[in-house]
Design brief:
Blueprint (H helix, E strand, L loop, with lengths): L1 H13 L13 H15 L4 H11 L9 H17 L2 E11 L2 E11 L3 E2 L23 E2 L4 E9 L5 H9 L8 E5 L7 H10 L4 E5 L2 H4 L21 E2 L36 E5 L1 H10 L20 E14 L2 E11 L4 E11 L11 H19 L6 E8 L2 H4 L1 H9 L1 H7 E6 L8 E6 L4 H8 L10 H16 L12 H4 L11 H7 L3 E7 L12 H8 L4 H19 L7 H16 L10 H26 L5 H16 L18 E3 L5 E3 L1 H9 L2 H30 L8
Parallel strand pairs: 4-8, 5-6, 6-7, 7-9, 12-13, 12-14, 14-16
Antiparallel strand pairs: 1-11, 2-3, 2-10, 5-10, 11-13, 15-16, 17-18
Helix pairs in contact: 2-18, 3-9, 4-9, 9-18, 11-16, 19-20, 20-23, 21-23, 22-23
Length: 720
């Protein structure tokens, strides 16, 4: 610990302490003061405290609904109260939860094999001997029992079943073995696809080609998954409706109305079970049938066959899927001047086992963030706006806690909330990934210039270098400019689902930011994702945990203290234009006229540039009238709400954002209603969705023009 303390001192000492005279959204005087506040804030988080908190949260398995997870909720509440966080409350939501009673898998022909469904200890990691580590199970699996032939279906996506059909293999009533990734798709989508195909049970295993020895050294000698690692996870259809399946669209507070289970579209009706490759190998080794295509072959030293006849397996699953309480911890630092304007941020607490990376690295960073903010508050450095902090429960089951909280306070959030900042996994390595709605991307980039990466570069420089390297390695650049990374393409503005930002962006209509450091990480959702892994591979020294606390806090402070909120709508317009261009690329859109949409984007961009210019002049001039600032800020907050369609995406009405959505795989889906209609060649719906987009652009253009007029002092054009 002495060496760790010296590293911490050197790390803090290396940080340049200088005042900024220019920060987006601040007058020069406010920027100078903000810079001083930020320097004081950044001096507080320490690697020792990050490690101490991380050890507490990874000490025991703490799945959603468990006694340990509930104990951690009380611990967080107590810590926050001691730190000076105000209005701390633990909110209860009674939700349809998921826990295993019994799971088993046996191969009954051509030879007998009983799957262990367990993870074995490795030298040097005492946590793996913990008796509370569960066997393999999938959240929200159906209960049942079946003996049936086994079929190998690659990644379990629709095109995989189409190939099986072409090979004359019928999966109805059979057990299907699929693998994670390759290409990535959310396990819930694999389950829904299998359910639609009439599959009796789904087995999902981790192939070493994706996250094991084919990638590099495995635990305990490296970061990749060992032979026995099991990727647990839920199969909830939360791409249809996240949160409690029985209260879709409203909060599951005690006594809430609940729909019948058979009406809940997010509850699977198929059995599912995750496997290690240790348990999958005997199955694959004994399968007959056609040889699987080359791109279906994996990392195991066997020839993969499609099966369907020779191997028969017996699957038995008993689940306790019943209503149980989940707990969200909420606290705040009340704003000194604008208490009814909120900056919200959060991290989920529940883990499949220890949660070394997911989510306890984020939880540890959050605890240091709150300690630092509480210390500033006690020194009289209270933010202008209120900062609301939440520890979510049940994220791993169906984005549950955040969804229920967001649904409960949706109306208040739409009136008061500026933005939501999410950190799920703080770090699994050194490579920063920043997500943002495009209106906040410039603010995120600006902030990374002011923080030092452990490499010695600024965080901005390190981010740009790692992004360029990743794009070269992937050979599938996401933005214009191919492998060249520019400021306009650095932040990821294509936001899917799969974490707690979902309710805030897609249902409430808040701008969101998502932060994380990433690296080689092959133990996701397994028992090996623990304190040992983090200290040996993920973040030895806890330097990136500390940097996350600093970045997260500085972003919150800038939004909380800005004179005029730093939304860049010209940047947003450019992003929307790119969405439309990508939608049209390579498609026959002769039955859909997108020119009115593109013209509306041009008008929105011009309005955004006008507001940017007016805001820059007003800020440079110094102090801004408080009533004018309130008008501008509340108006800019309304822009994101105006992207909501009350009717939602066709077929998925809970998801209301017309710019951002997610595919069933969790992958990002831009212009979701329009894109899905085009992909189905449903031109009537596509025209309707294009008109909804055009009208939203028109409304926001008028709003932004009015705000620019207000700043320019043109009262005649300002709607009161």
């Amino acid at each position: 610990m002495a060496a760790l303390g010296l590293l911490a001192l050197l790390f803090c000492a290396a940080l340049p302490v200088r005042s900024q005279t220019s920060i987006l959204g601040f007058t020069p005087a406010s920027a100078a003061h903000e810079s001083e506040v930020e320097n004081k804030y950044k001096a507080i988080p320490s690697p020792e405290e990050e490690r101490r908190q991380h050890h507490i949260f990874t000490a025991e398995p703490h799945v959603a609904g468990s006694a340990r997870n509930n104990e951690l909720a009380r611990y967080i509440a107590d810590e926050w109260r001691q730190e000076g966080i105000e209005d701390v409350i633990i909110r209860r939501y009674d939700v349809y939860g998921s826990n295993p009673k019994f799971t088993s898998l046996e191969m009954v022909a051509p030879v007998h094999y009983r799957a262990s469904l367990r993870e074995m200890p490795v030298p040097g990691d005492p946590d793996l001997k913990n008796k509370h580590i569960s066997s393999a199970w999938s959240g929200m699996s159906a209960s049942g029992e079946v003996t049936a032939p086994l079929v190998y279906a690659h990644s379990g996506n629709p095109e995989d079943y189409e190939l099986l059909r072409k090979q004359g293999i019928d999966v109805k009533g059979k057990v299907v073995l699929v693998r994670y990734s390759n290409p990535y798709s959310y396990r819930g989508f694999k389950a829904l696809t299998a359910e639609r195909e009439g599959v009796a049970a789904l087995l999902i295993y981790s192939d070493p080609a994706e996250d094991g020895y084919k990638k590099g050294k495995v635990v305990p000698n490296g970061p990749w998954g060992p032979e026995y690692h099991i990727q647990r996870g839920a199969i909830t259809y939360d791409f249809m409706v996240p949160g409690d399946p029985l209260t879709p669209g409203w909060a599951s507070v005690p006594g809430a109305k609940r729909i019948p289970i058979d009406q809940a579209v997010s509850i699977p009706k198929i059995m599912a079970l995750p496997l290690s490759w240790h348990d999958a190998k005997p199955l694959l080794s004994n399968m007959d049938g056609p040889v699987a295509p080359e791109n279906w072959q994996g990392g195991l030293p066997v020839k993969y066959h499609l099966g369907g006849n020779r191997v028969r397996v017996h699957v038995k699953i008993e689940m306790d899927n019943s209503t149980q309480p989940y707990y969200v911890v909420e606290g705040r630092i009340r704003g000194a001047q604008l208490p009814d304007e909120w900056i919200v941020f959060g991290n989920h607490r529940d883990a499949w086992v220890f949660g070394g990376v997911d989510p306890s690295s984020g939880t540890a960073s959050m605890m240091e963030l709150t300690r630092a903010l509480g210390k500033l508050s006690k020194q009289g450095l209270r933010p202008r706006r209120t900062i609301v902090i939440c520890s979510w429960d049940g994220e791993e089951v169906g984005l549950t806690g955040s969804t229920e909280w967001g649904e409960q306070f949706a109306d208040e959030l739409r009136k008061k909330a500026v933005a939501y900042i999410n950190v799920d996994e703080a770090t699994s390595g050194p490579n920063f990934h920043g997500q943002a709605v495009a209106s906040l991307a410039p603010m995120l980039l600006e902030t990374t210039h002011t923080l030092q990466d452990p490499s010695g570069k600024t965080l901005y420089e390190a981010w740009k270098e790692s992004s360029a390297r990743e794009r070269r390695e992937a050979k599938q650049p996401e933005g214009p400019g191919e492998e060249t990374v520019t400021d306009s393409t650095l932040a990821d503005t294509r936001i899917g689902s799969g974490s707690d930002h979902t309710v805030f962006l897609n249902f409430v209509g808040l701008p969101v930011l998502g932060l994380g450091f990433e690296g080689p990480y092959g133990v996701y959702h397994s028992a090996y994702d623990d304190f040992f892994w983090m200290n040996h591979f993920g973040d030895p020294g806890y330097r990136y945990h500390t940097l996350m606390s600093k970045l997260w806090g500085v972003l919150a402070l800038r939004l909380a203290n800005a004179d005029l909120l730093p939304f860049d709508f010209a940047s947003y317009a450019g992003n929307i234009r790119q969405f439309v261009i990508e939608l049209a690329k390579g498609k026959d859109l002769s039955q859909l006229d997108l020119k009115p949409v593109l013209q509306a984007i041009d008008s929105f961009e011009a309005a955004g540039k006008g507001l940017d210019d007016a805001r820059s002049r007003a800020l440079a001039a110094g102090a801004i009238d408080s009533e004018l600032a309130e008008t501008i800020n509340h108006g800019t907050m309304q822009v994101e709400r105006n992207w909501l369609n009350p009717d939602g995406i066709p077929g998925r009405p809970w998801f209301k954002h017309i710019l951002y959505g997610a595919r069933f795989t969790y992958a990002h889906l831009e212009l979701p209603g329009l894109t899905e209609a085009v992909e189905k060649q449903d031109w009537t719906t596509a025209k309707q969705q294009a008109e909804i987009l055009r009208q939203a652009l028109f409304n926001n253009t008028n709003l932004v023009n009015q705000l620019g007029s207000s700043l320019n002092g043109d009262k005649a054009e300002t709607r009161k």
